[in-house]
């Protein structure tokens, strides 16, 4: 798993949802652990697309349950 | 009243162009301060707007709220949250003091999330759909301030948002009165919020020729009842009060600021923006507030006026006051200092009225130097006046011909 992608994603999550970047670790669930709602997930996805140059279609976004899922998706679609 | 139910005020909260809370606002009002300052926004020059002044918050809500909370809220919602937290805490409430199904929130706004609407429209135009915030709708909807406060307090007796232009804040308080009197709620958090100092509202009000263009003397621009008045000054802010059924408040040992004894509402049926110069609708609202409160007009010592510093409106209001109450009440117009907070005005000025009764002092009408000869009533000018009040009325009127009068009495 890419540490650069993880730390970059953590910065976005902190900016959008106010979760401390250190708490954004691979095994965490966006909804259940980090208390991020569906509206914030849209914002996070848009910022991640810009930052990492990937496309995250809505049907893929729905599958990204954990931070690790997102890191893996971004890493393999960059 | 026959029901035996009384409505009392137990908590106050505000953020205004005079101060970041109720005490600082009240002190600045009595000290003769003005909240009006030049607008430094880039769009003032860009569109060469004729109005270059506004009454702007002393304490920006983003300085008070956590960053992430603030970015999810329109500015009108931010100020509503700030004022509501103050009022809730001032009332001595916490999570356990009231059954949530007996708690309501009613917060009105005149314009709603205009800043969000325009900002997001710019993003759509310039950067496309992807950049439009998924929070756009909950940020721009006019029930947003009420909804956010209701959610925070988990209020479940009802969450409402009256929209009646510059009467919205007062209408919220009138609605609270009705909910408590009818037995629908024991506690209601009610008020108004407005934050729309941005290009389109300023341009629109300018084109309607309703705003002061005294740009070279911002602090003197808002001057209700003065012969030199030339329109209102746009303001921003929020005022919120906690109203309760008296027995409920007393049972929990709450301090009581005063009583909302009666309310009156009416509509002019006259013109979309101009007030009826004969003040017929306005006087009916005032008379109804006294009737519903069982108050003898002779006992009304003071009227906190809506007077916005427009040539026609200020005089029409005094005609209405004379008709409904008589020649004896002492008047003031807080918009001389505060500017016009639109949907928040009625709520902030209701708070001022409650404090006038509590402290026995009526603030001066800032910038009233030469009383319009068409005004034959006693308007406080120059400095505050000490006066013991048995009852006082707060007027609020809005574009559309909405009239609201709130009649307050001591605790």
UniProtKB/TrEMBL annotation, chain A:
Pfam families, A to Z: PP-binding (PF00550)
Subcellular location: Cytoplasm
InterPro entries hit by this protein: ACP, ACP-like_sf, PP-bd_ACP
Keywords: Cytoplasm, Fatty acid biosynthesis, Fatty acid metabolism, Lipid biosynthesis, Lipid metabolism, Phosphopantetheine, Phosphoprotein
Pathway this chain belongs to: Lipid metabolism; fatty acid biosynthesis
GO BP annotation list: lipid A biosynthetic process
SUPFAM superfamilies named in the record: ACP-like (SSF47336)
GO terms for cellular component: cytosol; membrane
Function, in words: Carrier of the growing fatty acid chain in fatty acid biosynthesis.
Family: Belongs to the acyl carrier protein (ACP) family.
Protein name (database record): Acyl carrier protein
Organism: Lentzea aerocolonigenes
Gene: acpP
From TrEMBL, chain B:
GO molecular function, one term: 3-oxoacyl-[acyl-carrier-protein] synthase activity
Domain Ketosynthase family 3 (KS3) span(s) in chain numbering: 4-410
Pathway stated in the Swiss-Prot or TrEMBL entry: Lipid metabolism; fatty acid biosynthesis
SMART domains: PKS_KS (SM00825)
EC number: 2.3.1.179
Known catalytic reactions: a fatty acyl-[ACP] + malonyl-[ACP] + H(+) = a 3-oxoacyl-[ACP] + holo-[ACP] + CO2; (9Z)-hexadecenoyl-[ACP] + malonyl-[ACP] + H(+) = 3-oxo-(11Z)-octadecenoyl-[ACP] + holo-[ACP] + CO2
Gene3D superfamilies named in the record: 3.40.47.10
Pfam (any one): Ketoacyl-synt_C
Record-linked CDD domains: KAS_I_II
UniProt KW keywords: Acyltransferase, Fatty acid biosynthesis, Fatty acid metabolism, Lipid biosynthesis, Lipid metabolism, Transferase
One example of a Gene Ontology biological process annotation: fatty acid elongation
Entry's Gene Ontology cellular component terms: cytosol
Active site as annotated: 166
Top-rank taxon, per record: Bacteria
Family recorded in the similarity comment: Belongs to the thiolase-like superfamily. Beta-ketoacyl-ACP synthases family.
Role played: Involved in the type II fatty acid elongation cycle. Catalyzes the elongation of a wide range of acyl-ACP by the addition of two carbons from malonyl-ACP to an acyl acceptor. Can efficiently catalyze the conversion of palmitoleoyl-ACP (cis-hexadec-9-enoyl-ACP) to cis-vaccenoyl-ACP (cis-octadec-11-enoyl-ACP), an essential step in the thermal regulation of fatty acid composition.
NCBIfam families, A to Z: PRK07314.1 (NF005589)
The protein's name in its UniProt record: 3-oxoacyl-[acyl-carrier-protein] synthase 2
Species name: Lentzea alba
């Amino acid at each position: 798993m890419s540490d650069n992608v993880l730390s970059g994603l953590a910065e976005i999550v902190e900016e959008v949802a106010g979760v401390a970047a250190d708490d954004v670790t691979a095994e965490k669930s966006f909804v259940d652990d980090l208390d991020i709602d569906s509206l914030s997930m849209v914002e996070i996805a848009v910022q991640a697309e810009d930052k990492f140059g990937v496309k995250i279609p809505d049907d893929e976004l729905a599958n990204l349950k954990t931070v690790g899922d997102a890191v893996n998706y971004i890493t393999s679609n960059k | 009243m026959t029901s035996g139910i009384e409505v009392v005020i137990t908590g106050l909260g505000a953020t205004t162009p005079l101060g970041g809370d109720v005490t600082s606002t009240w002190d600045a009002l009595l000290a003769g301060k003005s909240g009006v300052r030049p607008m430094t926004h880039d769009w003032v020059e860009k569109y060469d707007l004729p109005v270059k002044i506004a009454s702007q918050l002393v304490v920006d809500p983003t300085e008070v709220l956590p960053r992430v909370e603030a970015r999810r809220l329109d500015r009108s919602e931010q100020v509503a949250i700030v004022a509501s937290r103050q009022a809730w805490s001032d009332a001595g409430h916490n999570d356990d003091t009231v059954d949530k199904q007996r708690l309501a929130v009613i917060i009105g706004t005149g314009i709603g999330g205009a800043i969000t609407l325009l900002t997001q429209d710019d993003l759509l135009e310039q950067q496309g759909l992807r950049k439009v915030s998924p929070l756009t709708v909950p940020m721009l909807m006019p029930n947003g301030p009420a909804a956010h406060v209701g959610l925070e307090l988990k209020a479940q007796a009802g969450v409402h948002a009256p929209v009646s232009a510059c009467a919205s804040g007062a209408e919220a308080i009138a609605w609270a009165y009705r909910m408590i009197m009818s037995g629908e709620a024991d506690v209601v958090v009610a008020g108004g919020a407005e934050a729309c100092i941005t290009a389109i509202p300023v341009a629109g009000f300018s084109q309607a020729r309703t705003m002061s263009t005294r740009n070279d003397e911002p602090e003197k621009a808002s001057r209700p009842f003065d012969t030199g008045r030339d329109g209102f000054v746009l303001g921003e802010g929020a005022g919120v009060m906690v109203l309760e059924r008296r027995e409920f408040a007393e049972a929990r040992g709450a301090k009581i600021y005063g009583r909302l004894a009666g309310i009156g509402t009416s509509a002019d049926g006259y013109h979309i923006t101009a007030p009826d110069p004969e003040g017929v609708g306005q006087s009916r609202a005032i008379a109804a507030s006294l009737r519903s409160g069982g108050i003898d007009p002779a006992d009304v010592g003071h009227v906190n006026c809506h007077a916005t510093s427009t040539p026609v409106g200020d005089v029409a209001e005094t005609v209405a006051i004379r008709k409904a109450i008589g020649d004896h009440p002492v008047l003031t117009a807080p918009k001389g200092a505060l500017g016009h907070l639109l949907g928040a005005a009625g709520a902030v000025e209701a708070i001022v009225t409650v404090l006038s009764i509590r402290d026995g002092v009526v603030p001066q009408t800032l910038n009233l130097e030469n009383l319009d000869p068409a005004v034959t009533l006693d308007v406080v000018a120059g400095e505050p006046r000490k006066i013991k009040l048995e009852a006082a009325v707060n007027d609020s009127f809005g574009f559309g011909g909405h009239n609201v009068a709130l009649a307050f009495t001591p605790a």
